[in-house]
Design a protein that fits this description.
Elements: H1 10-21, H2 25-38, E1 43-49, E2 55-60, H3 67-72, H4 100-106, E3 109-115, E4 122-128, E5 131-138, E6 143-149, H5 156-160, H6 165-182, E7 187-192, E8 195-200, H7 205-213, E9 221-227, E10 231-238, E11 250-254, E12 257-259, H8 262-271, E13 284-290, E14 295-296, E15 307-308, H9 311-328, E16 445-447, E17 451-456, E18 459-464, H10 465-483, E19 488-498, H11 501-509, H12 511-517, E20 520-525, E21 528-535, H13 542-557, H14 563-577, H15 587-597, E22 613-617, H16 618-624
Parallel strand pairs: 1-7, 11-13
Antiparallel strand pairs: 1-2, 2-6, 3-4, 3-6, 4-5, 7-8, 9-10, 10-13, 11-12, 14-15, 16-17, 17-18, 18-22, 19-21, 20-21
């Protein structure tokens, strides 16, 4: 029998390993940033071009590597972090598996320049597809500069599976933020296509959070601090009134390593129970320090999942700590039986002394005297006694009782009664489904504040009001964006909305499309976007909510350019602006919505391809009663 099992070539094995480590440009960013931190860098610069597809470069001032170490770093399973299996359960560094550079070099062009402190010259190595092309001495500053170019150049299929530049850049920013939040004592910069997105100076944790998410974040943070024998918990949670329904900043760090844990997230959500608005999500920046021997971080290729020895105890401590912080800073209601808030002295009275009240008594006052007492310092005027004759007539007629049968003539104020369900205004003049529906004055009814019921010649139509309004707004917005024919209402006082640099970059890209829908933008100052005009269909209070929803919908799946981006913009805005299920509508609004729906090009489905209405024929109704 012929042997069929054989060893894979090294370059094939490296490409397979790269599939686990390098999934997209953000994976490269994560591995290189962690290597720079392990090297003791105090300042790290990340340079990205074309969302990492063309270039990802890390420049740091860390230890650097000798020429031998530089060459060995590209070998598989070569690491300086562990020497035996026991070290896997006592890890204090980021990278330890020795696969990052080998995997990256297998699917990209890598250019490495490094020099350790005390050495006069550095080392320059060029690798293409796991093959070392060049190794030579060079002049370079202390530290390491590693450039990864043309990612997946030798695997076109993997490159084709990459998302648009906006999506890939969003993932890169996420990885950058996670590392930056874990190490506020390290200065970090991020450049994309020669433009600076972040410039973070060294500082404390609060300064780092404000540097990433904007200056207005300062007023939203509530400190969390607790230390036990099992875990030390620190960081900040965001006040409930600043929570977001569409997206939230949720960061867990265990021993300065970002992790994802639905179990711990549930603990924080439980601490916020009863404080968050409907369907809102808690935001937090929480740091857990535990014994490295009590966790296993080698259970996932990206090392974002960790296994704890005692998750139940950790859950209880985290929940109690967050709840205590919310109560300590008067965010959550607390019961204190020894404190009376009415006796608290206001701050503006702390330096004032109690004044003895002055009482003035008019000793000449006589309540039985018919003459009014004179005012102090004035002459006593003549006072005439009021005429009290006929005062009994004020109550005449009150004891009269209504004659029998007259009660029905009494009218009471009441709400206007709408038409009866079974006595409408007659048959409608709409054409049957499949043709355009003419505008008529047919009676419409609202069912459960969710559906609109009206009639046609063959039976009845039940319209889903939220989906129908989405379809109407979607086609209207799409037309306005394409033809730039929208109308705006100018605001008397412009709105200043705060966003992160990455969100401002996305809004700047979508600025033209938003202006075609009716928005008018002013200047962008620091982390604030000025809105001076809004579409006529919106109110001022709805603007922040709609833009938040728009960012949430577009930041992960926004296409490159062209009609697809316009379509996504119109869909997101229509979903936010549409009337919601559970909202009552008057007769005029119901009639207008039904007529507008059947005037659309595609009235049968919403922009999300869900049914907008159903028809029930007379025959179907007849069969129900057989």
């Amino acid at each position: 029998m012929v042997d069929i099992i054989k060893l894979l070539p090294d370059h094939v094995a490296n490409q397979i390993a790269a599939g686990e480590v390098v999934q997209r440009p953000a994976s490269v960013v994560k591995e290189l940033l962690e290597n720079s931190i392990d090297a003791g860098a105090q300042n790290i610069k990340l340079i990205v071009k074309d969302a990492g597809k063309t270039l990802v470069q890390i420049i740091d001032d860390g230890k650097g590597m000798s020429d031998t170490d530089a060459r060995m770093s590209f070998e598989r399973h070569a690491t300086s972090k562990i020497t035996n299996a026991d070290d896997l359960f006592n890890l204090t560094t980021k990278g330890f598996r020795g696969e990052a550079l080998a995997s990256i070099a297998a699917v990209a062009h890598v250019d490495l320049k490094t020099r350790p402190e005390g050495s006069d010259v550095g080392t320059h190595i060029m690798v293409e597809g796991s093959k070392v092309i060049e190794q030579s001495p060079c002049a370079t500053p202390k530290g390491t500069s590693l450039a990864v170019k043309n990612l997946f150049f030798n695997i076109p299929a993997r490159r084709n599976f990459l998302k648009s530049n906006n999506v890939e850049m969003r993932h890169i920013i996420d990885e950058f933020q996670r590392v930056a939040l874990a190490h506020p004592d390290i200065g970090m910069q991020l450049y994309h296509n020669d433009g600076e997105l972040f410039h973070l100076a060294t500082g404390n944790l609060k300064q780092r959070i404000i540097g990433i998410f904007g200056g207005k974040t300062n007023e939203k943070l509530v400190p969390v601090d607790e230390e036990t024998d099992i875990v030390k918990i620190g960081g900040y949670v965001v006040k409930p009134e600043f929570s977001k329904k569409t997206r939230g900043e949720q960061f867990f760090f265990v021993n300065d390593r970002f992790i994802k844990s639905a179990y711990l997230n549930h603990a924080v959500s439980a601490a916020f129970e009863g404080l968050l608005p409907d369907r809102a999500r808690a935001s937090y920046f929480l740091y857990l320090d535990v014994d490295p021997g009590s966790i296993d971080i080698n259970i996932h290729p990206t090392k974002t999942e960790i296994k704890f020895d005692d998750e139940h105890a950790l859950y209880a401590m985290l929940r109690s700590t967050v709840k205590h912080s919310l109560g300590q800073f008067n965010i959550a209601p607390v019961l204190d039986f020894e404190r009376d808030q009415t006796l608290d002295t206001p701050y503006n009275y702390k330096d004032k002394f109690a004044a003895v009240p002055k009482i003035q008594v008019d000793r000449t006052f006589n309540p039985f005297d018919n003459v009014a007492p004179p005012k102090k310092g004035a002459q006593r005027p003549d006072y005439e006694k009021p005429d009290t004759q006929g005062w009994e007539q004020l109550y005449e007629g009150l004891r009269k009782e209504l004659p029998q049968g007259e009660e029905s003539k009494v009218t009471y104020e009441s709400e206007q009664v709408t038409g009866s369900l079974f006595q409408g205004k007659g048959a409608t003049s709409r054409n049957e489904l499949g043709t355009s529906f003419a505008k008529t004055d047919a009676t419409t009814y609202q069912l459960q504040n969710k559906y609109i019921v009206t009639t046609i010649k063959s039976g009845m139509v039940v319209v889903h009001q939220h989906r129908a309004h989405q379809r109407v707004l979607y086609e209207e917005l799409l037309k306005n964006i394409t033809l730039a024919s929208s109308v705006s209402q100018q605001l008397l006082f412009p709105l200043a909305l705060s966003y992160t640099p990455s969100e401002l970059a996305l809004l700047t890209q979508l600025k033209e499309g938003l202006e075609n829908t009716g928005f008018v933008f002013g200047a962008v100052k620091d982390d604030a976007l000025e809105v001076t005009g809004i579409p006529t269909a919106l109110t001022e209070a709805e603007v922040p909510i709609i833009i938040e929803q728009l960012l949430s919908d577009l930041e992960n799946e926004v296409p490159d350019v062209g009609f697809s981006q316009t379509d996504a913009l119109a869909k997101s805005m229509a979903k936010s602006m549409a009337v919601k299920s559970g909202e009552p509508l008057d007769a005029t609004s119901r009639e207008h919505l039904v007529n507008s729906l059947f005037a659309c090009k595609e009235p049968t489905v919403s922009p999300g391809h869900r049914t907008t209405f159903v028809t029930i024929s007379s025959d179907e109704l007849e069969r129900k009663f057989q």
